[in-house]
């Protein structure tokens, strides 16, 4: 993988895998699958009312003290004091509760459902009666389906203009320039939530200002946002940008207060951008390969570079004219 090791790993809780991850991937953050934890809770405790409270401990954005308080309340409410499974689960809380993992990047993945989805798709194309040749053909069909879905998603992100739906259109347009369509929709939801937040200045020192951001009608949900005006950096106590990679409503509220009209580089996570794959497409051509594959490879490499060129040139009239002139001459020459 380009001499890079995974930064995050999610498993179903198998002890052998847990030990292997510690030895082989010591720098990776290991997380237990939330769905498997819920299933184990239902099967072991056999209390249907426990699931809702337990899900809150897995996914909610709490601090450590609030987690311990809620954990004790659940033990008392469901009479679980002394349960062996509960005690073992509490000991591993650092690898399954979001409040202990909120500064670690997992994107939006908190379960192994994506792996299960891939397995389900492959089972649709492959069965145990397949010959080896059938297996290879059917597996190729499954991969083509995945690649086609990726091409459709890329087309929607690169070529379609989204409809602006919020009152903060300036932020929507800025997000539509950088992010893929799916991430753009998530950011739109956060822009809408920002309209229901209150903000006030707590302190100002040189180029830094600290805000208190609270939900309308619920002052208990207080988030602290620190803005470095000199470096255009934002730090929120919710740590949701660190764990998911998109600017959240608290930060957007601070941006609006500071009259910042475009997303700064510090809030643009490259993984979620339209051009995230550009730098990872090799320009080396495969040798001794079939003609069709070589042509597809060349088209992909050229399209990637052209997309990046268009993104840069369209934002400045001088650059646009220069690129347009050079492209016309290049086409004539070829």
UniProtKB/TrEMBL annotation:
Superkingdom field: Eukaryota
All copies of domain Zinc finger PMZ-type, residue ranges: 234-261
UniProt GO MF annotations: zinc ion binding
Short name of one Pfam family: MULE
Protein name per its UniProtKB record: Protein FAR1-RELATED SEQUENCE 5-like
Source organism of the structure: Arachis duranensis
């Amino acid at each position: 993988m380009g001499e890079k090791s995974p930064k995050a790993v999610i498993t179903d809780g198998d002890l052998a895998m847990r030990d292997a991850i510690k030895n082989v991937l010591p720098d990776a953050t290991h997380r237990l699958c939330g769905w498997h934890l819920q299933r184990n809770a239902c099967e072991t405790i056999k209390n249907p009312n426990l699931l809702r409270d337990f899900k809150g401990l897995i996914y909610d954005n709490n601090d450590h003290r609030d987690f311990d308080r809620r954990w004790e309340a659940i033990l008392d409410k469901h009479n679980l004091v002394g349960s062996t499974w509960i005690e073992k689960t509490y000991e591993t809380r650092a690898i399954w509760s979001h409040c202990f993992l909120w500064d670690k990047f997992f994107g939006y993945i908190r379960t192994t459902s994506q792996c299960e989805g891939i397995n389900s798709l492959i089972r649709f194309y492959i069965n145990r009666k397949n010959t080896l040749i059938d297996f290879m053909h059917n597996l190729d069909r499954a991969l083509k389906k995945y690649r086609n879905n990726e091409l459709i998603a890329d087309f929607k992100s690169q070529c379609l203009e989204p409809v602006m739906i919020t009152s903060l259109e300036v932020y929507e347009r800025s997000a539509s320039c950088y992010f893929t369509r799916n991430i753009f929709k998530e950011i739109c939801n956060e822009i809408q939530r920002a309209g229901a937040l209150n903000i006030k200045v707590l302190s100002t020192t040189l180029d830094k200002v600290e805000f208190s951001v609270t939900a309308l009608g619920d002052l208990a949900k207080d988030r602290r946002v620190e803005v470095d005006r000199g470096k255009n950096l934002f730090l929120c106590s919710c740590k949701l940008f660190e764990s998911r990679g998109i600017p959240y409503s608290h930060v957007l509220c601070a941006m609006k207060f500071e009259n910042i009209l475009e997303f700064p580089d510090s809030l643009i996570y490259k993984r979620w951008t339209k051009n995230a794959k550009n730098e990872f497409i090799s320009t080396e051509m495969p040798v001794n390969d079939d003609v069709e594959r070589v042509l597809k490879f060349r088209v992909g490499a050229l399209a990637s570079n052209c997309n990046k060129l268009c993104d840069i040139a369209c934002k400045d009239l001088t650059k646009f004219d220069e690129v347009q002139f050079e492209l016309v001459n290049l086409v004539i020459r070829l």
